[in-house]
């Protein structure tokens, strides 16, 4: 009987030894399921970080988000094509039919794709810049001038 009373008295101590904190995910396997993961919003639904503190109007935000969405769709196709070319180069380099001319031609295609991607990114940046007011444009230029050349925003 003493043991039973002692165990009942110590039960709250053992239960509270490792309490669950608010916001903790359940450990893997609890309830037979892996922990919940919060889905990330689409990249087109988020504004670039350098635009967060500019006080954009709702209209500006919607215009920028539509530009970003169009750009993401375009870049998705471009990246698929770029990946296919890189896979061809990879397969060529590990085959008996390897030749410098074929490898050079594939590398030129990869470089052309990267050139196109850089141009599309510059066009997007300029389109976003044109949506901003004169004060916002000045603020963005000031932020960009403060950034170091080796740290992209």
TrEMBL record:
Q: Which Gene3D superfamilies match?
A: 1.20.120.1490
Main subcellular location: periplasm
UniProt family annotation: Belongs to the CpxP/Spy family.
Record's subcellular location:
Periplasm
**Signal peptide (from-to):** none
Q: Which UniProt keywords apply?
A: Periplasm, Signal
- Superkingdom of the source? Bacteria
Note whether S-adenosyl-L-methionine occurs among the keywords. Answer: no
Per the UniProt entry, what species is this protein from, by scientific name?
A: Methylomonas rivi
Q: Which Pfam families match?
A: LTXXQ
Q: List the protein's name.
A: Spy/CpxP family protein refolding chaperone
């Amino acid at each position: 009987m003493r043991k039973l009373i002692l165990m009942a008295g110590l039960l709250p101590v053992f239960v509270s030894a490792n309490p669950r904190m608010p916001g903790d995910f359940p450990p893997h396997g609890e309830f037979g399921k892996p922990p919940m993961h919060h889905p990330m919003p689409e990249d087109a639904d988020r504004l670039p970080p350098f635009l967060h503190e500019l006080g954009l109007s709702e209209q500006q935000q919607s215009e920028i988000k539509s530009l970003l969405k169009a750009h993401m769709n375009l870049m998705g196709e471009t990246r698929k094509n770029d990946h296919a070319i890189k896979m061809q180069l990879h397969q060529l380099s590990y085959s008996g039919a390897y030749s410098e001319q074929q490898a050079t031609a594939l590398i030129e295609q990869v470089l052309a794709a990267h050139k196109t991607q850089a141009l599309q990114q510059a066009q997007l940046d300029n389109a976003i810049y044109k949506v901003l007011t004169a004060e916002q444009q000045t603020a963005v230029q000031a932020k960009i001038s403060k950034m170091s050349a080796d740290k992209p925003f």
